[in-house]
């Protein structure tokens, strides 16, 4: 199968959507499919052989963060050329409502289109206001996927129609077989995320840290991610700052070793999360997980069975839970065991097969639609799938 995948966000700025697309593309390549990914990227960015650059992206505030997107006449021309050259059997667009390549591809593409919605934002005035512009593009979509029930709910409430829920995937064994690093072991709390993006929750963890360190004098916080390290610790008493170690950006291999090493992984994110891929990666590595009780996180952690939850933005609740878990190796071992079993449902062997099944459904149905309804009509296929807008 010839598969075209559209990434809305800049390939050279790591993020959950980019990682998902990368791993999905590589999964299909291993199965023998022909895959091409169109993504924004700076000219000097080294790209995998399956990625085609659509040019440099620009930073735009989006979904409580700053996304690097690509839009405009030049981008539209590159999208059309990529579609023409690719002659794809199916186009898979991620975040088709973002003002980026996905929306441009929706407008330009012909044939079966699958769209994945990653965003969970129940109060998106921008999405409601943009509905009239998006409607023509969205009606071309043959099947819709949401990465979680909360992303599906955002889609239903703002745009109508429905979607099948297929979660983000992870290579579970890649994390499970990583070798721990001794210098990252021994009373360590782990955090992975952009340091200077408040919704990732590092300020909440920093507020909790003095109570944690007072109760567990041997504990340390290890932080992996880019951002202003001095600003991150400025709220801490000076004598505690040496107990925080910043590792900067880490490779995929080192992230796996990091998660295999820490005694406790903390995800203090405050909102804007539709899934929580880092939780899946941490469980894959066997790390006991403590996370804020966002709806999406609760779902990923099996409502607290595969990892513990604390009240969102409550630094005291975070500190209390962390102190208790750091002092209870049996409970941490129980969470590790439960997480390792629960996470198998997110492995690419399951997730990739589910996505491929959607592709096969829409491509098989396209010929029938053409015969039943004539060229250019996708209504019959959408009705049979029960996935697209009424």
Characterization of the model:
InterPro entries: Glyco_trans_4-like_N (IPR028098), Glycosyltransferase_grp1 (IPR050194). It is built from 16 helices and 15 strands. 48% of the residues are buried. Helix content is 43%, strand content 17%. It has 390 residues and is of the alpha/beta class. The strands form 3 sheets. Strands 3-2-1-6-7-8-9 form a 7-stranded parallel beta sheet, with helices on both faces. A 6-stranded parallel beta sheet has the order 12-11-10-13-14-15, with helices on both faces. Strands 4-5 form a two-stranded antiparallel ribbon. Residues 375-390 have low confidence and may be disordered.
pLDDT < 50 stretches: 375-390
**The CATH topology of the largest domain:** Rossmann fold
Distance between the termini: 29 Å
Computed structural class: alpha/beta
In which order are the strands of the major sheet placed?
3-2-1-6-7-8-9
The biggest sheet amounts to: 7 strands, parallel
Helix fraction bin: 40-55%
- From the coordinates shown, what is the CATH architecture of the largest domain? 3-Layer(aba) Sandwich
Tally of domains: 2
Mean pLDDT: 89
CATH-defined superfamily of the largest domain: Glycogen Phosphorylase B
Shape: elongated
Number of helices: 16
Radius of gyration: 22 Å
Q: Strand portion, in percent?
A: 15-25%
Quickly name the level 1 CATH class of the largest domain.
Answer: Alpha Beta
> How many strand elements?
15
GO molecular function, one term: hexosyltransferase activity
Domain Glycosyltransferase subfamily 4-like N-terminal: 14-173
Protein name: Sugar transferase
Keywords: Glycosyltransferase, Transferase
């Amino acid at each position: 199968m010839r598969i075209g995948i559209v990434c809305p966000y800049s390939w050279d700025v790591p993020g959950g959507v980019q990682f998902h697309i990368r791993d999905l593309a590589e999964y299909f390549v291993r199965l023998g499919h022909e895959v091409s990914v169109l993504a924004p990227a700076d000219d000097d960015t080294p790209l995998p052989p399956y990625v085609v650059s659509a040019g440099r992206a620009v930073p735009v505030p989006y979904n409580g963060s700053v996304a690097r997107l690509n839009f405009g006449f030049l981008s539209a021309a590159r999208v059309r050329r990529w579609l023409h050259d690719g002659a794809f059997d199916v186009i898979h667009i991620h975040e088709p409502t973002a003002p980026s390549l996905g929306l441009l591809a929706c407008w330009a593409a012909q044939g079966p289109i699958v769209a994945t919605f990653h965003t969970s934002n129940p109060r998106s005035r921008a999405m409601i206001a943009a509905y009239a512009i998006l409607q023509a593009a969205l009606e071309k979509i043959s099947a819709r996927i949401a990465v979680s029930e909360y992303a599906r709910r955002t889609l239903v409430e703002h745009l109508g129609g429905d979607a099948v829920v297929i979660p983000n995937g992870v290579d579970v064994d890649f994390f499970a077989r990583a070798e721990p690093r001794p210098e990252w072991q021994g009373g360590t709390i782990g955090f992975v995320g952009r340091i200077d993006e408040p919704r990732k929750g590092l300020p909440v963890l920093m507020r909790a840290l003095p109570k944690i360190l007072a109760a567990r004098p041997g504990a340390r916080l290890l932080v992996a991610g880019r951002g202003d390290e001095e600003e991150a610790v400025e709220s801490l008493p000076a004598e505690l700052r040496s107990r925080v170690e910043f590792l900067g950006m880490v490779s995929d291999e080192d992230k796996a070793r990091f998660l295999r090493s820490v005694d406790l992984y903390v995800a203090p994110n405050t909102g804007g999360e539709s899934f929580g891929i880092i939780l899946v990666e941490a469980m894959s590595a066997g790390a006991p997980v403590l996370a804020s009780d966002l709806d999406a996180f609760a779902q990923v952690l099996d409502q607290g069975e595969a990892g513990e939850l604390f009240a969102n933005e409550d630094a005291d609740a975070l500190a209390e839970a962390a102190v208790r878990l750091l002092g209870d190796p049996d409970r941490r071992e129980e969470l590790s065991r439960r997480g390792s079993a629960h996470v198998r449902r997110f492995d690419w062997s399951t997730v990739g097969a589910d996505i491929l099944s959607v592709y096969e459904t829409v491509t098989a149905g396209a010929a029938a639609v053409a015969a039943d309804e004539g060229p250019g009509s996708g209504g019959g296929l959408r009705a049979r799938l029960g996935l697209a807008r009424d």
